[in-house]
Automatic annotation (TrEMBL):
It comes from the Bacteria. SMART domains: HTH_XRE. The keyword Lipoprotein does not apply. The lineage of its organism: Bacteria, Bacillati, Actinomycetota, Coriobacteriia, Eggerthellales. Residues 14-68 form the HTH cro/C1-type domain. This is XRE family transcriptional regulator.
Length: 72
């Protein structure tokens, strides 16, 4: 593993999957029931999302939770 933290890699995956799905941060934050700032913090590796939050994010992206950790 590189010097990149698990939270940073997870956030990068979430951001990439969101962008690939064509969803803006604002729209996605509304979809999963969080503030846009909290979503930004997750995507930038500054937040420590709960398992429940990861399930909501994965559901919003219509992907399994495990895919959020792909390559981590």
């Amino acid at each position: 593993m590189e010097n990149t933290s698990l939270k940073t890699q997870l956030g990068d995956n979430i951001a990439r999957l969101r962008v690939e799905a064509g969803i803006t941060q604002c729209s996605f934050a509304l979809m999963v029931g969080v503030s846009r700032q909290y979503l930004i913090d997750i995507e930038n590796g500054r937040a420590n999302p709960t398992v429940d939050m990861l399930e909501r994010i994965a559901g919003g992206l219509d992907t399994p939770v495990g895919k959020l950790f792909q390559g981590v």
